[in-house]
Design a protein that fits this description.
Blueprint (H helix, E strand, L loop, with lengths): L14 H9 L2 H13 L2 H8 L3 H15 L4 E4 L2 E4 L1 H24 L10 E5 L1 H4 L3 H11 L5 E5 L2 H9 L5 E4 L10 E9 L1 E5 L14 H4 L4 E3 L5 H11 L10 E2 L3 H10 L3 E5 L4 H6 L3 E2 L9 E8 L6 H15 L1
Helix pairs in contact: 2-3, 2-4, 2-5, 3-4, 7-13
Protein name: LysR family transcriptional regulator
Family: Belongs to the LysR transcriptional regulatory family.
Keywords: DNA-binding, Transcription, Transcription regulation
């Protein structure tokens, strides 16, 4: 493939693409990436050290070049269109590569490896991820790993926006899964957990749910899969979740409450595994049939090669299988 007379573009680049490449500038990509990730033009402007009108003008130029709407902008903020979602995958890679190249030219030595960015639900972050990160760093000393914890929907939105390389989470409704793939790691049911000296541990045989409801409860927040399964489990026994529950996805808060009081924790069964293994918490004999839920790896269906993220995914598969 010979260079064009201008010495910049290959000869076989289509004319419309060549025209776009000659006019596209890094400022177009930087403004677009910042607006897409911040979901707000004002915050994007602050991040870039520009005025909001300057960001708006640059985005208008980019959309005119593309001949397509890339961001829906309004009072609600800025949201990617389908064309914008596709463009973002490539724009993020270009801006990151440019930053690494600039660092090398500025005398920063060898550019640092791009960190692996992984999202995880709070209830699954402590299950496989710590061992997986330790193994990844043993294979690749010095590699950076950025971990983001949050609700499933927010993590999937960040994954689609190329802010994360992979997510350990759950399947979602079809609209939310657009452009994403799901690979099963394991399935888990609810567990009902207390401290070892809890009054319910002295009951012989299975513990009735009605007896559990006589104690303070710690449950997942509304709208989450563990909360749905908790309420469904109670409803099958003709019971309802009482008022006055502690509702949280923060595992550290839940485990501290249960260890220090007679609260009862409804949680995915793998979440408290370390405390169960250490004997500081115990699982009550409460049948939880029908609460199994798959947990898996979520990635963009079409993504740029990311060897370190691929390694981390392979490690997670191995740990889940073992």
């Amino acid at each position: 493939m010979n260079p064009s007379p201008e010495g910049l573009l290959p000869e076989d680049v289509p004319p419309d693409v060549a025209h776009l490449l000659r006019r596209l500038r890094l400022r177009h990509l930087s403004c677009f990436v910042a607006a897409a990730q911040e979901e707000h033009l004002g915050r994007a402007a602050d991040r870039l050290g520009l005025s909001q009108p300057a960001v708006t003008k640059t985005l208008n130029e980019l959309e005119a070049l593309a001949g397509a709407r890339l961001l829906d902008r309004g009072r609600h903020g800025a949201r990617l269109t389908p064309a914008g979602e596709e463009f973002l995958r490539h724009a993020v890679g270009v801006t990151e590569a440019f930053g690494a190249a600039a660092g090398a030219l500025a005398g920063a030595g060898e550019p640092a490896a791009v960190p692996v960015r992984v999202g995880a639900l709070p209830t699954v972050a402590s299950v496989l991820l710590p061992d997986a990160v330790a193994r990844l760093r043993a294979r690749h000393p010095g590699v950076g790993v950025q971990v983001r914890s949050g609700a499933n929907r927010g993590l999937l939105e960040a994954l689609r926006a190329a802010e994360l390389d992979l997510v350990i989470g759950r399947m979602a409704e079809p609209a939310t899964m657009r452009g994403l793939s799901f690979e099963l790691l394991y399935a888990e049911s609810l567990a009902v957990v207390v401290h070892p000296d809890h009054p319910l541990t002295r009951r012989p045989g299975p513990v009735p749910l009605a007896a559990v409801l006589e104690h303070p409860l710690v449950v997942a927040t509304a709208g989450t899969v563990p909360r749905h399964h908790t309420e469904a489990l109670l409803q099958r026994q003709g019971l309802r979740l009482p008022g006055g529950c502690v509702e949280t996805l923060e595992v550290s808060v839940a485990r501290a409450l249960v260890r220090r009081s007679d609260a009862v924790w409804f949680t995915p069964e793998r979440t408290p595994q370390v405390d169960l293994d250490d004997g500081v918490l115990v699982r009550l004999d409460v049948p939880a049939r029908g609460t199994a839920e798959p947990v898996g790896l979520l990635r963009r269906s079409v993504a740029e090669p990311a060897p370190l993220a691929d390694d981390l995914a392979a490690i997670l598969r191995g740990l889940a299988a073992g």
